Amino acid sequence: MFHEINSLRNWRHWSPWHKQDQDPGMKNVYGATEEGTGATYRWEGLRHRKTGRGKLIITASKPFRFIATDIYFMGRGLVKGVYRPDPSEGGTTVTRSFEAYTGNHPLRKLAGLLMDKWMGRDFETGLNNLKQITEFKA
């Protein structure tokens, strides 16, 4: 499972944000490093507002412990993400978390409170897809 997250090219198989069916015209560009610390990925959606544009960087990767990312969504600032695989009975549990500074502006604070409602389903879909892929490969 760690390799599926640590290699950015693999994200197209499990992350709902990398699915071209959301935006068939979406452009994806991978950096010179595609796996582990320093790996980068850029995207730009052409037809769908939800796809938008942005950049993801793996800022730290400790095998089988965690993968940390910086994500820049549509010029709206930095979101820090962490994927943490932990051994559990019968397999692995992956915890995915995101953190963003909302500042003192009331609308940004409100947006921060609504993030789980807006993005929670995508997070769950991605983790479920990741589970199916790794179970299939096992």
How many H/I helical runs? Answer: 3
Total beta-strand segments = 6
Global morphology? globular
Helix content: 25-40%
Q: What's the helix-strand series?
A: HHEEEEEEH
Largest sheet: 6 strands, antiparallel
Radius of gyration: 15 Å
Class by SSE composition: alpha+beta
- What is the strand content? 25-35%
Cα distance, first to last residue? Answer: 10 Å
Spatially, the strands of the biggest sheet line up as 1-2-3-4-5-6
Mean pLDDT: 83
Poorly predicted ranges: none
Helix/strand layout:
Blueprint: H1 2-6, H2 11-14, E1 27-30, E2 40-44, E3 53-62, E4 66-73, E5 78-88, E6 91-100, H3 106-137
Antiparallel strand pairs: 1-2, 2-3, 3-4, 4-5, 5-6
Structure explained in plain terms:
It is built from three helices and six strands, in the order H-H-E-E-E-E-E-E-H. It has helices at 2-6, 11-14, 106-137, and strands at residues 27-30, 40-44, 53-62, 66-73, 78-88, 91-100. The model has no long low-confidence stretch (mean pLDDT 83).
